[in-house]
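Before we proceed, please read the two lines closing this message. Tell me what the token row says about the fold.
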Amino acid sequence: MTAKEKKTVEPSAHKETTDKKEEEAKQEGEKDMAAALEEARIKLQESEDRILRLAADFDNTKKRLEREREISLKYAEENILKELLPGIDNIERAMDQGKDANNVESLLHGVELTRDGLLATLEKYGVKAIDAFGQPFDPNIHEALAMEETDKMEPNMVLREFQKGYLYRDRLLRPSKVVVSKPLGSGT
């Protein structure tokens, strides 16, 4: 082979070697991309699984809290009812004592103690009696059943209370039923 022929052959051999290297590099790059793609798919699948588990956990927690809330509301009055039962027991004892005894004073004292115990229980839960007697008439907490002329009190004051009113925290449970004073000689 002549030198000229070698020169023409050599570039072609060099080109084949370069093409093989490029092809191998391309195949290697494709393998790397395929591996990276597979790794990304695995991570995506893991993330989707994690999201589904979190969603299921959230849903289960939400359902559990709703059940607990329903149970709590269903039995919310249980504590106050338990504390009212001794009052009923005391009333029953007073009734039994009233049948057997002729002493009205001891019976009245027992009933007063029972009332005081019931009021203490109610106050413990935020229920307070409205002090109406001698107070200015307030239509927000008093219900006027009648007006009565008197010189013992200023006009528009609560003269008598027929039924106690009660507040529950800041809300009116029941207004006081009262008689309101008016000046003498004012007529109807």
